[in-house]
Design the sequence.
């Protein structure tokens, strides 16, 4: 059995739901074969979310960590390639905090790459009929904060652990009054199951073009 820690976020920015937690909850209720899932909801709060993640890793002792967040406006599931060492909040978090140009980890490296086979994960999701892409930026809000925190934890304390971050589009109920892309929670959950499977069985990533021109 592969022990997998899945994290999603509580709602933020005035929304009643967060598709990341919706999808994570569905995966936890029906895990992929051969996996043991621990699901944890993180606060959408700088500092607190990273502390909650570290505590969850300590308790679950996973082989694989997949953190999941919301990226409203994106048309498909995006697997993040890189986390950067900066908090720069366009909006306040759920505790009213709004750091600007602050490091996630004082003295940490500028960036970390995900330790997941991001291109293989994206290819597998597409093969399952779900829109997906490699993302070159996790933003500078709490999602990137958690992603960088996870990568730093792996680099400094748990070198055998593998982990990364996935962004999901809005849930349909979040866009009923506006024309923006959305995915049903069940489809997002299916994508996460596929990503977990690809990450478990793939150690060497695909060498295919998934870059961006801007």
Sequence:
């Amino acid at each position: 059995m592969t022990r997998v820690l899945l994290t999603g976020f509580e709602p933020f920015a005035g929304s009643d739901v967060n598709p990341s937690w919706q999808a994570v909850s569905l995966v936890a209720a029906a895990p992929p074969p051969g996996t043991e899932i621990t699901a944890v909801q993180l606060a959408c709060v700088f500092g607190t979310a990273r502390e909650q993640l570290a505590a969850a890793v300590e308790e679950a002792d996973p082989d694989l960590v997949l953190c999941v967040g919301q990226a409203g406006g994106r048309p498909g599931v995006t697997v993040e390639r890189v986390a950067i060492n900066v908090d720069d909040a366009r909006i306040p978090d759920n505790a009213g905090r709004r750091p600007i140009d602050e490091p996630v980890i004082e003295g940490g490296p500028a960036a970390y790459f995900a330790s997941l086979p991001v291109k293989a994960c994206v290819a597998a999701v597409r093969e399952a009929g779900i829109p997906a892409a490699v993302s070159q930026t996790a933003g500078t809000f709490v999602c990137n904060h958690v992603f960088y925190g996870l990568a730093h934890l792996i680099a400094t304390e748990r070198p055998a652990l593998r982990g990364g971050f996935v962004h999901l589009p809005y849930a349909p109920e979040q866009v009923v009054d506006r024309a923006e892309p959305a995915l049903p929670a069940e489809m997002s959950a299916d994508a996460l199951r596929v990503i977990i499977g690809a990450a478990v069985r793939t150690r060497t990533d695909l060498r295919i073009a998934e870059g961006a021109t801007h």
